[in-house]
Specification:
With 316 residues, the chain is of the alpha+beta class. It has helices spanning 5-9, 31-43, 50-53, 129-133, 148-166, 287-296, and strands spanning 47-49, 57-59, 70-80, 86-93, 102-106, 111-115, 121-125, 137-138, 176-178, 184-186, 194-202, 208-210, 215-223, 228-236, 239-244, 249-253, 258-263. Strands 1, 9, 11, 12, 13, 14, 15, 16 and 17 form a nine-stranded mixed sheet that branches. Strand 13 (215-223) and strand 14 (228-236) form a beta hairpin.
Length: 316
């Protein structure tokens, strides 16, 4: 993923602390402290950029001396294209750099992520080194189906060729197509996705016509509490515009074997779209900002807009 000062400074972000009434109960910690602990553990949403999760250390459970061992690094995340859910995590251990390392597949729920007041995090597994070593290794080639070019090529195999064989749409009918919900993709390759915006024009099949490329995905943000990719950012005219993942539809150019996102907003309105702004404390730790993002893309039926729907993009 592309890195910049903004994303580097926002490794893990959460909702600002809440204020509670301090009612003391006999023989117990103050209610304010107990409530704060509960919120920190269960309710606060934290967002980590994929570029910082990949490469992060994963630590073992404490040994008899209380120390933890460095088990592995996060090699990649495999994300479901439709829901944004992290299907599984690829861990890398041993070797030097990327040479001679061993890959293992674990569930995101197998990881425990602790956050500190300094917006840093520590990633752990409830395993010792011996138990970790017993997890079955996987081959690098097993990740090939999740690479962007493979996903694009497989779309052509499944959708385009039958259409060509029938002769009903000709070659122009198979040039592009929606690929949402076709499977999973490596999170590390999301920054290869170009972004296009919708226009007022529709083709003969009623599909919105997209404009030319306006940029590429800069960063993807994971809610570490839910294990879902929830937001993506685009550097557009010096503004870090934020999209809800569910507001974007992924498409495939089957001839170029490239994937891209279509955003449900016209280009002329993109400058009004919610964007990071530290002067207003607009970042993903700010719940009001997250609500503003969702509201901007909401449809008349109350859902977050997608191309082909009734996306208002008004933010009103």
């Amino acid at each position: 993923m592309k890195c910049n000062q903004l994303t580097a400074a926002m490794l893990i972000v959460g909702v600002p602390s809440l204020t509670f009434a301090a009612a003391q109960e006999p023989g117990s910690a103050p209610k304010q402290e107990r409530d704060a602990r509960a919120v920190t553990a269960d309710d606060v949403a934290y967002y980590a950029p994929v570029s910082k999760l990949i490469g992060a250390n994963v630590w073992s459970r404490p040994g008899s001396d209380g120390d933890r061992d460095d088990l592995a690094d996060i090699n990649d995340l495999v994300v479901d294209a439709e829901s944004g859910k992290i299907d599984f995590v690829i861990l890398s251990s041993g070797g030097v750099g990327s040479l001679g390392d061993s890959l293992r597949r674990v569930n995101f729920s197998d990881l425990t992520i602790e956050h500190t007041d300094g917006d840093e995090c520590k990633i752990m597994m409830n395993l010792g080194e011996d138990e970790f070593d017993r997890i079955a290794k996987i081959e690098e080639k097993s990740l090939e189906p999740y690479r962007a070019k493979t996903v694009a090529a497989s779309f052509r195999d499944r959708e385009a060729r039958p259409r060509e064989a029938s002769g009903t749409q000709g070659t122009t009918g198979v040039r592009e197509g929606q690929m949402r919900a076709t499977g999973a993709i490596l999170a590390s390759e999301l920054d290869d996705f170009d972004v296009r915006v919708s226009t007022a024009a529709y083709d003969a099949d009623g599909k919105p016509v997209e404009s030319d490329k306006i940029g590429s995905i800069d960063e993807a943000w994971v809610n570490t509490k839910t294990g879902k990719l929830e937001y993506l950012t685009l550097d557009y005219k010096d503004r870090m515009v934020v999209f809800p993942h569910r507001a974007l539809i992924s498409h495939v150019d089957v001839e170029g074997k490239q994937l891209y996102f279509v955003a449900p907003v016209a280009a002329e309105r993109l400058m009004q779209a919610p964007a990071f702004d530290e002067t207003k404390n607009w970042n993903l730790r700010n719940e009001e900002f997250r609500q503003t993002i969702d509201k901007f893309y909401v449809t008349k039926n109350g859902d977050v807009g997608r191309v082909g729907g009734e996306s208002s993009g008004s933010g009103k």
